[in-house]
Amino acid sequence: MAGNPPIVVHRISASGGRRVTVSGRILGLAHSDDATLELLHGAGITGTADLLADPTMVDWVGGRPHQYQLLELMP
């Protein structure tokens, strides 16, 4: 994490998707980068996919960036 980014994409939920917050305000649950951008646009934050790659703006918590489903482990 670089500094204190205002956008946080939280860890993947057990059912899939990631909660998205801006300055602590919950925007919703996203299941893709496009859905994340839609939530941000609804909150008045404009940007393209480049925004999601900017560590000064977005903190991806508890998982790889741009991943929205838990990976299943092979038995």
Q: What would your notes on this structure say?
A:
This protein has 75 residues and is an alpha+beta fold. A four-stranded mixed β-sheet has the order 3-2-1-4, covered by helices on one side. The protein has helices at 33-42, 49-52; strands at 7-12, 18-22, 25-30, 58-60. It has two helices and four strands.
Q: Which characteristics define this entry?
A:
four-stranded mixed β-sheet
TL;DR?
The protein is of the alpha+beta class.
List the helices and strands and how they pair.
Blueprint: E1 7-12, E2 18-22, E3 25-30, H1 33-42, H2 49-52, E4 58-60
Parallel strand pairs: 1-4
Antiparallel strand pairs: 1-2, 2-3
* Fraction of residues in helix: 10-25%
Q: How far apart lie the N and C ends?
A: 33 Å
The shape, in one word, is: globular
Number of strands: 4
Q: How big is the Rg?
A: 12 Å
The ordered string of helix (H) and strand (E) elements is EEEHHE
Give the low-confidence spans.
Answer: none
User: How confident overall, as mean pLDDT?
Assistant: 92
Given the structure, what is the number of helices? 2
Main sheet specs: 4 strands, mixed
Beta-strand level of the residues, as a percent range? 25-35%
Class computed from helices, strands and strand pairing: alpha+beta
Enumerate the strands of the largest sheet in spatial order, edge to edge or round the barrel: 3-2-1-4
